[in-house]
Amino acid sequence: MLASTRWGTELDTVRPNLVSDLLRGATTLFTEAGIASPEPDALELLAYAWEIDRAALSRRRLFDDPVPESVSTRFAELCDQRRQRTPLQHLTGIAHFRHLQLQVGPGVFVPRPETELLAGAVLTELSELDSRTESDEGRRPFVIDLCSGSGAISLSVATESERVDVLGVEREPAALDWSLKNLEHSRLGESTVEFILGDATAVTEARPDLCGRADIVVTNPPYVPDAAVPRDPEVAEHDPAAALYGGDSGLEIPGRIILEAEQLLRPGGLFLMEHSEEQGAGARELLASTASLRHAATFQDYTGRDRYTVARRES
Ligand SMILES: C[S@@+](CC[C@H](N)C(=O)[O-])C[C@H]1O[C@@H](n2cnc3c(N)ncnc32)[C@H](O)[C@@H]1O
Fold it and tell me: In the chain, N or C terminus with fewer CB closer than 10 Å?
C-alpha cells in the first residue's frame, strides 16, 4: 500500500497501487468536490503523471497494471490540487482545442469546447469564400481574431485552412505571451498568423490600415455581466477577469467590438461572435443597430444553447 496515495475515503483500505484503484479513488474524490467530469479528469491526470498518452493508459487500465510509486505519488499531489478546483488544464499545462494542444496557464483564458464550433464556422466560411473567389488568383483570405487569448481560434483557422492570413489582437500582455508560445509550436503550412498587443475596442484607431480589409472578423470577447460571478471556482478564481467581464450587461465590450468589426470588414465580409446562452437576442439587436451589418443569425452549441451570432457586411 502506498502511504502517499490516500484519498481520505474507504478506498484507502484497498490496494491503491493498481490503475483501477487510483482511478476509482480519484473519481470519487472529484465527484465529492463537485467536479463536472470526474472520470475524464482522473484519466487525464494519471496519464500526465505517468508521462504516457491516453491510448497507453487505456491499455494499462485494461490489464490493471501496477502503478510505480513515483507516479502514484505525483498523481496524488495533482489530485489534491484538482480537488481544490485548480483547472485541469493548469495542472497539465495543456488545453485540447480542435486538433491543437495549446499551452495554457495562469494569465490566459482556457479555451472552451463550445468555441471549437465558432472556429469551425470560420473554416466553413473560408471554404465557401474559396469557391466564390476561385478565379481571383493569388488572393489570400484575411481573418482578424479580436480578443485572441491563447490563440485557439487563430491557430485552428490557420492550421486547418490551406492558406489564410490571420491577425490576432489581444490586450493583455500575459495572454499574448501564451499565444506567441503556441504560435511557435504550430505547423502553419502556407498560412500565416500574427499576434499583436492591442485594444479590440479601438483597433481601427491604432491600425487604420486594416479598415475594409478583413474577409472575416471573429471574436470570443469577454461577455459575462460584471456582477455575475461564475459559479465554477476554476473560472471565477483562475480565468483572468479581463477575459470574463464585458460590462454591466456583459454586452458593453462586445458592442464596441462589433463597431470595430464593421469597419474592419470588406463589403460582403462575415462577422462571428461568441456570447452567452442568454445574449443571442441582445447580440442581434446590437448588429441590427449598425449601419452595415445585416442578416444576423444565432447558432447553438453542443447542448442546444444559443452560443454565437453571425452577420454579413452589406456589399
Ligand atoms: C473569452 S477570452 C477568449 C480567448 C480566445 N479567443 C478563446 O476563444 O479562447 C477573451 C480574451 O479577450 C481579451 N480581451 C479583453 N478585453 C480586450 C480588449 N479590449 N481588446 C483585446 N483583447 C481583450 C482577454 O484578455 C482574453 O484573452
Answer: C
Measured from the CB, is residue 243 less than 6 Å from ligand 1?
Answer: yes
Which of ligand 1's atoms lies nearest the C-alpha of 118? 8
**Residue 229 confidence (pLDDT) above 50:** yes
Average of pLDDT values for 75-95?
A: 97
Task: Tell me, in angstroms, the distance from the centre of ligand 1 to residue 243's CA.
Answer: 5
Dihedral sign from CA coordinates of 253, 236, 220, 243: positive
217 Cβ neighbours under 8 A, 6+ residues apart: 143, 144, 146, 261, 264, 265, 269, 270, 271, 272
CA of 190 to the centre of ligand 1 (A): 26
Domains of the chain: 10-84 (no CATH), 105-313 (3.40.50.150)
How many angstroms separate the alpha carbon of residue 20 from the centre of ligand 1? 40
**199 CA closest ligand 1 atom index:** 20
In this structure, the residue with its CA closest to atom 5 of ligand 1 is 149
Confidence (pLDDT) at 315? 81
pLDDT at residue 243 is higher than 50: yes
Distance (Å, whole) CA 297 – CA 294: 9
Give the closest residue to 286 by CA, choosing from 315, 314, 304, 310. 310
First to last CA, the chain: 71
Nearest to 148 by CA among 206, 95, 224, 199: 199
Q: How confident is the model at residue 2 (pLDDT cuts 50, 70, 90)?
A: very low
Among 89, 146, 147, 224, which is best to mutate for testing ligand 1, by the most ligand atoms less than 8 A from CB? 147
